[in-house]
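Researcher: Excuse me, tokens okay?
***
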Amino acid sequence: SRTGGHFSSNLGVVELTIALHYIFNTPEDRLIWDVGHQSYPHKILTGRRDKMSGLRQYNGIAGFPKRSESIYDSFGVGHSSTSISAAVGMAIASRLLKSDRKSIAIIGDGAMTAGMAFEALNHAGDIEDINLLIILNDNDMSISPNVGGLSNYLVKILSSQFYASVREGSKQILKRMPTMRELAKRTEEHMKGMVIPGTLFEELGFNYIGPIDGHDLPNLLSTLKNMKVLEGPQFLHIITQKGRGFPSAENNPCTYHGVTAFDPKTGKMVAKKAIVPTYTQVFSDWLCDMAAHDEKLIGITPAMREGSGLVNFSKLFPERYIDVGIAEQHSVTLAAGLACEGLKPVVAIYSSFLQRAYDQLIHDVALQNLPVLFAIDRGGLVGADGPTHSGCFDLSYLRCIPNILVMTPADENECRQMLSTGFNYKGPSAVRYPRGCGSGIVIDPNLTTLTIGKAKLSRQGSKIAILVFGTLLTVALKVADKLDATVINMRFVKPLDIDMILQIATQHKLLVTIEENVIMGGAGSAVNESLYANKNTVSVLNLGLPDSFINHGDTAMLLTQCGLDVDGIVNSITNHLENIT
């Protein structure tokens, strides 16, 4: 309630977390939390209760499991659907190392929509001699609401060692009678399938148990105790409620999924009144306006309707709104298919999540030069969510792809104009914008486009020219006032305004590039390459994010740490000038 963070999902796993740590020998037995946003009870139980006041704060504990933070955090996470693969790897390692250590993956029903989860299930179910337990935390009733007396009774039978022994013994006897073995298998599946919905997981090779009430601690304890001694890949399906025990979160689990500071007595959030719109809101408004203008627009999101700003669009244009679930790869190739048929897809996606669909971006969109617009939110540092969610690499991994148009708006008005520019471009395009609010500039309500590949002179100075990619323009202008520098708002990472770069290079002693992206391979590197190709030897200083992962904390503080505040940039330029004179 003080620091903000993920809330309703953590309330939903309190009993499960207690049961897991009680039954299993952690940290020797490995707990792997999928996504990790539900790991707060786990952190509290593993020696970090007194550090929770610093959750997601600078130099405080992370909002996700982190191996460097605790030996109880078996696997670092932040993105979804990785837990089963990691658990399978650990289980195989345990077998090879002659250890009886257990590997337990806890994954939500939302994360189970991702292909990676099923790839891992398909592999794991084929390995009979591993100590692996997959726990499906079904908190949306999306798979089955079948929790009742008969189901609970069957769970007790199926999770017992006696049943497992009889089942395995029968397998051995029937090995020599394949027809009878197949009949027995089908009979068992039919009987279980009448009461429990686990046929799919049984077919994948798992011993499926459930569903059971994930808030019934005694039943959880007895079931996990029984399953602990079973051999081979096991699958436990539990039903939980997001926000359990906090009425406001129970009634509005989505609203309380990620919270700002709030009053724990009333549940009322302490909302900071935004004076200017966020970039996400700018995109949201543009999407609805453009959809009203062009009926071919299709909005796509991989399970980030709220975060990416598609709530209003989904209500106004439900037939043109597609939420594919946590399936980034599918979302991109789906967009490619839509584009092939003359529609105009807009994929709203976080920068760090687009990384998961890089092959699809290249192979399915760019290679075919299809008109798909990527509205890339959370470009640059994201603050409290930390390195798993920071968009530090997108300019580097996008600009090397042929055919794609890459734009970095300096303010919210340019963001709107660039979205229109990309939407009307006859090929793949990307508009990359940060989390948070803009500078408060007046936004033109029209759907105006920009001239592709043209930068803009923002300030005329002498000797030093600062080439800015993105929203650090406001910082650069303050730096320029101190150093009497020229400032160029580059706007386009690809194609670069090479004519402007060469012109500025002949008029200045030093070019400085600034971007909220890693320096390696970023926009500054593109400037270096263009100068080298044109045999221009002007001195260049590239400023951006370092070759390291940047921890969570206040974004302004992190930018200062990276030397991307006014004083840091002035010092870097001054020191560089001293070295070249």
Observations:
- The longest helix spans residues 178-195.
- The longest strand covers residues 508-518.
- DSSP finds 23 helices and 19 strands in the chain.
